[in-house]
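Revision sheet: structure tokens.
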Amino acid sequence: MTLGQVIRDARIAARLSIEELSESTSVRIGLLTEIENNNFVHCGGDTYARGHLRNIANKIGADPLEFIRMYNEEHSLENRAIGDLLVENNVMQVPHEKKVISWKVPASISLAVLFTFG
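Predicted:
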């Protein structure tokens, strides 16, 4: 079971709607939905994600340290490539392969110019 599923189950067990949890934690509904879908990309980094998890855990009566432990296991930065982290934090763009122009195109253009003017 993922951390997001655990959070959703604990919220439901606490008889809180996602709107009520959002109001009591000051975490946007959209972000709470992403967290419950185990997506922490828009949390603003690890520090903010852990802060959100502590607030959520306290409001639904769960153990904040357990949520943090699960977050570290599932979403630890140490297990991710540096390129992925740089892209996620908007430091660099997703690398794209450069298209290599075939030698045939310039050769065809050169021949066309040569036959036309020469």
